[in-house]
Structures are given as C-alpha cells and as structure tokens.
C-alpha cells in the first residue's frame, strides 16, 4: 500500500506519525535523548551494538510471537523451549559425542518438535493456546532439568563462539542474522497470503474457516515456527554464554510478550505489526540498559519499564480513537 | 393532542466522510408509538444514539418537556427517563433475570450489600406489569428464549422508570407468537403514557402499532412526520427509497439446465435427516420452513462446516466427499451464511481484503499478494454489486447492513461458483438493497448459476423461487413448483397438519 506512494507529502508525514509505529518511534527517540543526557556512556556505538547482542534472543522469539498473537493465540512455552533446545545441544555434543554441527541441528529440531507439539494440541486437539502452552512451559522445563541432570555443558570450541560473540564487519553476528529474519517476518506477515490469513484468523476465526482458509494448518505452522525460532535462539544463546543450563531463559516469555504488546499488537488478535514489535523491544532494551548506566538499581528498572508499558499502551489507545 | 415529551430541533451529526444527520427535527409525545423508518444508513441509529446520549450532536438542540437539555452520556439519559432496547440484546447470560434488570442500580442493604429480597420482589412486580409472570426472576438469562430475553430488557428499561423507550428493530429475531406478545406490551406501555420510538423494517408493523411515522433518508427527514392513519405502505416505501419500486420481486422464469447438485439421504446428527433433493443449472430453489427446521444446518452439511455422517452428495453427477468449506469451494459451491457478522465478514478488515479473501490463492505470485490484481478484483465487484463505500480501504464494520451483505456476496461471487447457497440473503437489510440483491440473483441464475435460497420471509420465497422445498424437523417434506407454491401450501407443509392453526414464523411484510 505504501509502495504506491513513493514520495511522502507533508500531510502524509503527519499521518505516519499518528500510526502506532509512529508513536512508538517518537517514544523511542525521547527515551534515547533523555538517556543520552543522563549518561555519556549510553549513546555510543559500542554500547548500542552490544545491546543488539543481548536482545537478539528475545527478538527471535518476538517475531513468531507477533504472528501468533495477531492470529488470536499465545505461546507461553518459548522460554522453556529455548532451555530444552539448549540442553539438547549440550547433551548431544558432550554426552552423545555428536559433531557440533549435528548437535546444532538437534537443537533446532528440538525447538521445532516443541513448537509442533504446541501446534498440534492447539490446532487439532483444540486445547486453548493459553492452557496448552502453559502446560508445555512446565513440561519442556522439566525435560531440560531431567536431561541435563542439573549439570551444565561447557568447553565449546572457539569457532563455535562466532555465532554468539563474533562479528560480521562492525556488527555482532547474531544481529545480522536477526535483521535478515526481521525483514523475512515482516514480508511474511504484511505481503504474503499466509500473513493475510493470520490477520483473518485473528479477526474472525469462524468467518476465516467459512472462507476456505486452512485455519488448522496456519495455526500449526505458526506454533511450529515459534518452536524453530526458540531452537535458533537457543543455539545463539549457547554460543554467547558458552554454557547450557536447564534454568536458562526462565521468564523470558514475559519479556517477549511485553515487547509484542508494547509494539501495538492487539492482545485479542487481528492487528499488529513486526515493525511495532521491534520498536517495542528496542524501547524495553534501551530503557533497561540506559537506566543501569545512569546508576538506577535493577529493581527500580523493572518498575520504570512497567510504567512505560502502561503509558505506551494508553498513548496508543488515544491515537487509535482519533 | 399532548405536548411532546422530547423534541429534537435541527439536529446535525457528522462522521468522517459522511453527514449522518442533517438538520433533523423529530418529537415524541406521551402515550404514542412513533415509528422511525429508513433504509440502512439513513441515520436512524445515529438519531437514537443522540437521543440516549451515546453520541453528541454537532448542531441543534434537544428539549425535554419544553426545556433544553444536554445528554452527555447514556447514564445521564437513563436518569432523564430515556432508555433504549437495541437489536442486539445486552444482557449478562450468566446472571439472573433480577440481576440483569437491576444491573448498576440494585437496591442495597446498609453496608452496600445487595438486597436480594427486595430486588427480586421489584423485578417480579415489573414483570407482572408486563404480563410476564411466568418468568422466574432467579433464573439465569442464558437459556431464555429471545422473546423472554427481550422482556427482560424492557423490564430493565422500566426499572429506570423510563418515560421514553426506544426500540430498535425489536421483532427482527422473534417468532410470531413472541411478536404478538411484544405488541401487547408496547400497547400497554402506551396506555401508561410512555412515549415509544419504534424502529422497524417491517412496514406492516407500522400500521399495526404506530400512531405517527417519520421517514429518514440520507440523514434527513423526508417530508414531515405523518399520521399513520393518513398514509399507505406504498407512500412510505416511496419516501424511504426515493423512487417507486415497480416490483419488489422482479422474477424472471428460469430455463433449468443440467443437474449440478444432487443430495441423497444426507444425514448429520438430529438436524439433518435423510435429505434428498436436486438443484439444476439456472434455477432458484427456495428452501422454506420454520426456524429450527434444520435449513441452515443442511446448508452447513453441504458446505462441509459439519460434514455429513452418511448419505451422498453429487456434483455434476459425480459423487464427492466434502469434509471442509475448502473442499466445498473447490467443487464450486459457495455459501453466504445467515450470520454475516460472525460467519461472513472480517469486520475490522477492509472491503478489498474481505472481497479477495476466498480467492486469495489465485492472487498470489510466489506466495506474495499481487495488490494490483486484488485491487482490480475488488473494484470489479464493488461496481458490479454497487457496493456503497467511500473507498476499497474502508473497514466493513463501517458499512451499512445491506452493503456488508453485498461484500459477503462479492467474496463468494469472486470464486465463480456453480452452486450458490444463500442463507437469509436479505435479512435485516433495507428495501432498496433487498431489491438489488433480488435482481442480482435473477441475473446470476440467467447466467446458469444454481441458487439455493433459504428464507424465512414467505413473500421472498414465493416471489423469487422457481421451485420451493419445504423442510420440517430436519427433512424435506414437500417440493412445490412455482405454480403450486402458494402461501397456504408452504405453511401447511412447514407446520405439519396438526399445527395449522398457528401461522408461519415468516413475516408477510413488504408485500405491496
């Protein structure tokens, strides 16, 4: 739609700023300005690039979560899936003695399996998403502890660190991977037939089914995709922290969902965007980082983020009503 | 002649892109039923929302018993004695009848606790006035018939001591029996001096019930408010549509061709029991019956929503299995459902997206949507069906009922179906759009489409069908050709002989 208006007229500028993404963008700018005034260590290339390293895992999970929530569902199990996949990576490499690339493949497939089970339960057995993924949140975490026996795998070879600690040009490796996937997710959601189906299902599942949309298949695919991304995040996470622990990423699902909702995706489904989610995540990450740099204690950071979440949602509401 | 209880003078209201009301004056007197008529989108809903305080007018004034008032919100409106009962009832299904009636203003004991005894007593007293003693006030609303739920709504309005009661299409979903009871209640309220604003699409109700009538068109009052005794149905229709409808059912007789759809011994649960019928190219077959006879259920079995448990469906003579709407679509079957808001439309998505939804696969290039093709498709159908929308990017929730129905039709016509099943295609839409849809059905049949039309409106069934099938208790009990299909014959078959003393639930409205 935007493609057909190559130049932005002044009036259109204003309209863009009135969209949800526009509002979030302004909030993000305000936060950056304020924080850079409070701390001179904040607005540096080094610090910002380092932040992209830290946010990649959350971002990878937030991409499919955006699609899932737009489609009227939710996936609470992503943190546990990540931990389980990471544990499988360490387990198959260290205990089973698989070559590392194969162990990474096991890690990705574990995530995919976890997601596929969610998808099967939700799409075909018709368990409500909240309940299905709350259950697998516990089950996959249980697998992590059971398989790892609470021991962590470490001692990965140096070349393995490339994915979590290395660089491509000036950019952290995982950030490059993330940017490619953001573009892919954005195109998938906003330009493809599949994306349109996701919106349709979130809008009115019954009408979507009556219109011949393969509702079950779309839902299954979304959750499977979410699992696969958790597997990928597990791989990058392991490479970054060089150890696999069963309690990794505990509570991460809340960060992910907060970013999606802050990004303007309706928790009831039917509307939202990948760009919004990424802005939401940027706001949360930079706020947390900036406040730490200015010497605010960790507990206070959480409160500030909570307040920002509520303010952003209110502003969004205001914009939408006009 | 009594003074007006409430009077609107020169009310205007603008929404982005549309002047919903333009200098409208309107008044209601004590102890009268004032009917408000108009096509969908004429401004009726906006007018009543201004009356209740849900909307604020941009211009003009409201007078209550001669004194100017402002009504900032509906709560305030209720305090002034203005209550409305909308088409879609707003009850809490799991709360009791009494709780619903006193929602928000229950009698309380000291300390703020609910005074249950007094609440139920007062609820019973109000229902008694409505001649609805048979309603158990401690029962949850869920499971009450639509008619009884409506009585609860009326009781709720009366519990606020409403002196002005607005009823928005109260009979749309009622059975004949409930309609009679509702009329009795409205007359009783009138005797008690309540001023009733009565909105309806059924012209005969105006003559049965109302004292005066006002017609709205395009946000303006047409002519002036009339005494019902001094007007006629023909005049009112002319006022509503702004033109004379030469004929309401422009039926062109069909040239039936090959059999396209054949159904043999089709069964599903208790609602579809050994159904047999055929459908030929180019004919319109009406499916009549009482509400609950299993007509929509049959359509949903054929369309694969609830796949058949046994029996056979043949398309073009070939036995097929239909397990989902997708498979039905692939075979050239389309179904325009009765409940367009829940089953037909993505209300928050736009006209273009809704129109393209069922054929999206054909608009993909390597998985990506070809927006230019989608645009062309939507434009083509907006023009063909004369869908009135400011743009293709308008959310369908903002369209009037008739135009929403056309969007659903457009979505299905885009699939180029061989068999089109229409479930109550003109329910709740205005006279003008109705005639357009009927003309369209004729044109489609002429082009060779086979149409199965479910309808509860007898005039529509008789006016549009080449053949009529009558369903009762899940099966087809009669097949009548156009010559045999009289009102009496259809009713007799739909009722079964022993129930003949009752009348068909279908209204016989709009029969000029």
Q: How are the elements arranged and paired?
A:
The complex is a heterodimer of chains A (322) and B (512).
Chain A: H1 10-18, H2 20-38, H3 45-70, H4 78-95, H5 100-124, H6 129-148, E1 153-154, H7 162-165, E2 167-168, E3 171-172, H8 173-191, H9 193-203, H10 205-210, H11 215-241, E4 243-244, H12 252-262, H13 274-293, H14 298-321
Antiparallel strand pairs in A: 1-4, 2-3
Helix pairs in contact in A: 2-13, 2-14, 3-8, 3-9, 3-11, 3-12, 3-13, 4-5, 4-6, 4-11, 5-6, 5-11, 8-9, 12-13, 13-14
Chain B: E1 4-15, E2 18-29, E3 33-37, H1 44-52, E4 59-64, E5 67-69, H2 74-79, E6 82-85, H3 97-101, H4 116-129, H5 146-159, E7 164-168, H6 176-191, E8 195-199, H7 203-209, E9 212-217, E10 220-221, E11 226-227, H8 233-241, E12 259-268, E13 272-280, E14 284-289, H9 295-302, E15 310-315, E16 318-320, H10 325-330, E17 333-336, H11 340-344, H12 351-356, E18 364-365, E19 368-369, H13 371-384, H14 401-413, E20 419-423, H15 431-446, E21 450-454, H16 458-464, E22 467-472, E23 475-481, H17 487-495
Parallel strand pairs in B: 3-8, 3-9, 6-7, 7-8, 14-21, 14-22, 17-20, 20-21
Antiparallel strand pairs in B: 1-2, 1-4, 4-5, 9-10, 9-11, 12-13, 12-15, 15-16, 18-19, 22-23
Helix pairs in contact in B: 4-5, 5-6
């Amino acid at each position: 739609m935007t493609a057909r208006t190559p130049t932005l007229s002044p009036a259109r500028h204003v309209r863009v700023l009135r969209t949800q993404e526009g509002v979030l963008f302004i909030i993000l700018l305000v936060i950056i300005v304020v924080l850079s005034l409070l701390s001179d260590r904040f607005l540096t290339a080094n610090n910002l690039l380092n932040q992209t390293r830290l946010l990649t895992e959350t971002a990878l999970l937030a991409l499919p979560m955006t699609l899932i929530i737009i489609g009227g569902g939710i996936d609470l199990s992503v943190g546990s899936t990540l931990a389980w996949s990471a544990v499988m990576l360490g387990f198959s490499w260290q205990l089973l003695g698989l070559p590392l690339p194969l162990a990474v493949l096991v890690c990705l497939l574990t995530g995919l399996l976890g997601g596929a089970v969610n998808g099967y339960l939700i799409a075909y057995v018709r368990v409500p998403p909240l309940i299905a993924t709350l259950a697998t949140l516990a089950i996959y975490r249980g697998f992590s502890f059971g398989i790892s026996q609470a021991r962590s795998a470490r001692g990965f070879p140096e070349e393995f660190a490339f994915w979590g600690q290395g660089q491509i040009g000036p950019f952290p490796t995982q950030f490059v991977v993330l940017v490619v996937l953001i573009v892919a997710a954005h195109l998938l959601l906003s330009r493809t037939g599949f994306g349109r189906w996701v919106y349709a299902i979130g809008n009115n599942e019954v009408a979507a089914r009556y219109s011949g949309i393969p509702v079950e298949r779309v839902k299954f695919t979304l959750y499977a995709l979410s699992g696969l991304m958790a597997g990928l995040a597990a791989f990058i996470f392991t490479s970054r922290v060089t150890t696999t622990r069963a309690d990794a990423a505990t509570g991460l699902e809340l960060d992910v969902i907060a970013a999606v909702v802050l990004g303007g995706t309706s928790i009831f489904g039917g509307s939202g965007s990948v760009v919004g989610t990424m802005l939401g995540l940027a706001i949360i990450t930079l706020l947390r980082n900036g406040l730490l740099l200015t010497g605010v204690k960790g507990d206070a950071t959480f409160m500030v983020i909570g307040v920002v979440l509520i303010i952003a949602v209110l502003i969004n509401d205001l914009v939408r009503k006009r | 002649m009594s003074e007006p209880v409430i009077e609107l003078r020169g009310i205007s209201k603008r929404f982005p892109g549309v002047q919903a009301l333009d200098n409208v004056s309107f008044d209601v007197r004590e102890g009268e039923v004032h009917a408000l008529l108009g096509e969908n989108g004429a401004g009726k809903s906006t007018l009543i929302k201004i009356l209740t305080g849900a909307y604020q007018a941009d211009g003009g004034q409201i007078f209550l018993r001669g004194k100017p008032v402002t009504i900032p919100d509906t709560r305030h409106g209720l305090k002034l004695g203005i209550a409305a009962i909308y088409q879609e009832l707003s009850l809490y299904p799991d709360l009791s009848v009494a709780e619903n009636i006193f929602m928000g203003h229950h009698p309380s004991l000291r300390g703020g606790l609910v005074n249950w005894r007094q609440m139920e007593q007062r609820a019973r007293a109000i229902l008694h006035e409505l001649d609805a003693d048979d309603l158990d006030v401690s029962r949850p609303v869920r499971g009450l018939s639509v008619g009884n739920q409506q009585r609860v709504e009326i009781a709720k309005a009366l519990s606020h001591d409403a002196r002005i009661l607005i009823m928005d299409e109260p009979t749309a979903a009622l059975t004949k029996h409930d309609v009679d009871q509702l009329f009795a209640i409205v007359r009783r309220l009138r005797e008690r001096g309540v001023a009733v604003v009565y909105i309806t699409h059924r012209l005969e109700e105006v003559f049965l019930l109302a004292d005066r009538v006002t017609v709205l068109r395009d946000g303006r009052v047409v002519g002036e408010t009339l005494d019902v005794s001094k007007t006629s149905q023909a005049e009112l229709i002319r006022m509503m549509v702004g033109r004379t409808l030469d004929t309401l059912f422009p039926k062109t007789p069909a040239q039936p061709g090959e059999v396209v759809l054949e159904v043999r011994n089709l069964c599903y649960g208790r609602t579809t029991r050994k159904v047999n019928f055929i459908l030929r190219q180019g004919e319109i077959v009406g499916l009549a019956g009482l509400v609950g006879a299993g007509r929509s259920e049959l359509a949903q079995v054929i369309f694969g929503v609830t796949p058949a448990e046994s029996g056979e469906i043949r398309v073009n003579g070939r036995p097929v299995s239909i397990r989902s709407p997708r498979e039905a679509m692939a075979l050239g079957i389309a179904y325009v459902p009765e409940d367009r808001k829940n089953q037909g439309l993505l209300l928050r998505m736009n006209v273009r997206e809704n129109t393209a939804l069922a054929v999206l696969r054909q608009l993909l290039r390597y998985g990506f949507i070809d927006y230019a093709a989608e645009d062309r498709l939507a434009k083509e159908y907006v023009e063909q069906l004369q869908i009135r929308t400011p743009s293709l990017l308008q959310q369908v929730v903002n369209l009037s009922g008739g135009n929403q129905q056309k969007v659903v039709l457009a979505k299905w016509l885009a699939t180029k179906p061989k068999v089109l099943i229409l479930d109550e295609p003109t329910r709740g839409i205005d006279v003008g759009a109705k005639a357009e849809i009927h003309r369209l059905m004729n044109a489609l049949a002429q082009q060779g489409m086979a149409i199965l039309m479910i309808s509860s409106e007898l005039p529509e069934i008789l006016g549009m069908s080449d053949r009529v099938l009558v369903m009762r208790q899940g099966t087809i009990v009669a097949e009548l050709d156009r010559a045999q299909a009289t009102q009496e014959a259809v009713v007799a078959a739909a009722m079964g002989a022993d129930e003949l003393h009752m009348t068909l639930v279908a209204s016989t409205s709009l029969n000029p």
